[in-house]
Design goal:
The structure holds two protein chains of two kinds. Chain A is an alpha+beta fold. Chain A has three domains: 100 residues, Rossmann fold (3-Layer(aba) Sandwich); 61 residues, Dna Ligase, domain 1 (2-Layer Sandwich); 239 residues, ATP-grasp fold, B domain (D-amino Acid Aminotransferase, Chain A, domain 1), CATH 3.30.470. Chain A is 34% helix and 27% strand. In chain A, the strands form five sheets. In chain A, strands 13-12-9-10-11-14-19-17 form an eight-stranded antiparallel sheet, sandwiched between helices. In chain A, strand 12 and strand 13 form a beta hairpin. Chain A is globular and about 65 Å long. The termini of chain A are far apart. Chain B has one domain: RNA polymerase II/Efflux pump adaptor protein, barrel-sandwich hybrid domain (OB fold (Dihydrolipoamide Acetyltransferase, E2P)). Classes of the chains: A alpha+beta, B mainly beta. Chains A and B meet through loops of A and loops of B.
Chain lengths: 449, 70
């Protein structure tokens, strides 16, 4: 195992990685920006190195400063956490060339996953179901109508070069298709200077289901069961669960097994090693691959609490070249776990709310785990994402976990900034949520004040 | 006369108006950045931009006046 590792991240995940690494006997190095100097993750590491001013591009995304810190401290490996440089294949390659281990997948696998059309081609070849759609741009209305017929209505029209909802429109019928195609085509030309529209099946209210993967460098790959992350706002996850309410009570078991097989096929197609996640959309009895994330997920604790698999521990062991000794038939789930992302934001409009944590008292209790980036008196600055902590609650089953979580959310005392704690309290009391009938548009219609 | 204030604490990312420009209610005047989100600050009523009280990259607090409309 490594003697010393550097954690190229901040907040709760830096702290969590630090705890695991220290418990495995490694010495730890934190890197921090000027905005984070006083935070717990800096104090708790064995060493701490300043890497730059507050903006992420000058600090946590500053590859040269991080490399400098690696050299200066003699760290043998770098754990990137999630976000920031975690999916930067170039960084992984650079440190590997310097003889330092990147705690993540091989850089080649990262590159294959990042190129969306290449990723789609690879998984289709491997027999993984993807969202039905056109692989190339649609040249004219006539072709669009033919393709739409094959894909099946409603069809989503996407202008090439667009993103984040720009240049996207839905056609419910062939008549609408003609209009929508022309509008999208014009928009593509006007906004992105490119001719071209792609079509894909539109899912009005899908569910987000994902499969945790672990693989070693010798080709032994297994899955660590599924999570559901359908409760989202602005395409960002808010509540995550293991197992998926979609499959509760043994529902759709053949589909679930089919999804596990597809996730493993996708991971193998990418040449994946270390911890990763294969994301799927579920709609009307079908599952469709969206992407594979080449990193530890924010929501990994719900998997840890229900399977007992120490994901970060395995990340280090696999990166150090050890064999993944777990076998697929040893992976079993016990009980249920939910994770609530505690965001510094207005609980109704979701506006960011940075500021001082005048009071910060997380709850305690049976089955309650807090992964927190801050302590009372710390300042939450506007420089980084709004997640200040994760509350993870486990129970014997979903109802038990929800009951414990309701108490824990009600007991969580944060003052000085606005947080989404009231939103979580509303979600937990929503009958539709409690029945597990959730989808990615849940918050548009439910848990209103 | 209307003072248009920052509705969040963050940094001025872009100024989308000029002094003397006529604006309608709902037009974006300034875009703030906070916690990895871009948040537009819109004109509360129609009028003319009389004064811009912020610069790009400047940190601002919730309630700070960014633009004065006349």
């Amino acid at each position: 195992m490594f003697r010393k590792i550097l954690i190229a991240n901040r907040g709760e995940i830096a702290r969590r990685i630090n705890t695991v690494a220290q418990s495995m006997g490694m010495r730890t190095v934190a890197v921090y920006s000027d905005a984070d100097e006083k935070l717990p993750f800096v104090k708790e590491a064995d060493e701490a190195i300043r890497i730059g001013p507050a903006p992420a591009k000058d600090s946590y995304l500053n590859v040269e400063a991080i490399l400098e810190a690696v050299k200066k401290t003699g760290a043998e490996a770098v754990h990137p956490g999630y976000g920031f440089i975690s999916e930067n294949a170039q960084f992984a390659r650079t440190i590997s060339n310097a003889g330092v281990v990147f705690v993540g997948p091989p850089p080649e696998a990262m590159e294959r996953m990042k190129d969306k059309s290449e990723a789609r081609r690879l998984v289709v070849e491997a027999g993984v179901p993807v969202v039905p759609g056109t692989a190339t741009v649609v040249p004219d209305v006539k072709t669009a109508l033919e393709q739409a017929e094959q894909i099946g209505y409603p069809v989503l029209c996407k202008a090439a070069g667009g993103g984040g909802g720009i240049g996207m429109a839905v056609a419910q019928t062939p008549a609408e298709m003609e209009k929508v195609f022309r509008a999208c085509s014009d928009r593509a030309k006007a906004a992105f200077g490119r001719e071209g529209v792609y079509l894909e099946r539109y899912f009005p209210a899908p569910r987000h289901i994902e499969v945790q993967i672990l693989g070693d460098l010798k080709g032994h790959t297994l899955h660590v069961i599924e999570r559901e992350c359908s409760i989202q706002r602005r395409h960002q996850k808010v509540v995550e669960e293991a197992g998926a309410p979609l499959f509760q009570g043994g529902a759709d078991e053949p589909l679930r097994q089919q999804m596990f097989a597809a996730a493993l096929k996708a991971a193998r197609a990418f040449g994946y090693a270390n911890a990763g996640t294969v994301e799927f959309l579920y709609s009307e009895g079908g599952i469709y691959f969206i992407e594979m994330n080449a990193r530890l997920q924010v929501e990994h604790p719900v998997t840890e609490l229900t399977t007992g698999v120490d994901l970060i521990g395995w990340q280090f062991r696999i990166a150090a070249g050890e064999t993944l000794t777990l076998q697929q038939d040893q992976i079993e789930r016990t009980g249920h776990a939910l994770e609530f992302r505690i965001y510094a934001e207005d609980p109704i409009k979701y506006f960011p709310s940075p500021g001082p944590l005048k009071v910060y008292r997380p709850p305690t209790g049976a089955g309650v785990r807090i992964d927190s980036g801050y302590a009372e008196g710390d300042l939450v600055t506007p420089n980084y994402d709004p997640m200040i902590a994760k509350l993870i609650v486990s129970g014997t089953d979903r109802a038990d976990a929800i009951a414990r979580a309701t108490d824990a959310i009600d007991a969580f005392d944060i003052q000085g900034i606005k947080t989404n704690l009231p939103l979580h309290a509303r979600i937990l009391r929503d009958e539709t949520f409690r029945a597990g009938k959730i989808n990615t548009r849940f918050l548009e219609h439910h848990a209103k004040p | 006369m209307a003072d248009v204030a920052a509705h969040i604490t963050g940094t001025v990312w872009k100024i989308e108006c000029k002094v003397g420009q006529a604006v309608n209610a709902g037009d974006t005047l300034v875009i703030l950045e906070s916690m990895k989100m871009e948040m537009p600050v819109e004109a509360t009523e129609g009028g003319t931009v009389k004064e811009i009280r912020c610069k790009e990259a400047q940190p601002v607090n919730e309630g700070d006046v960014l633009v004065v409309l006349g």
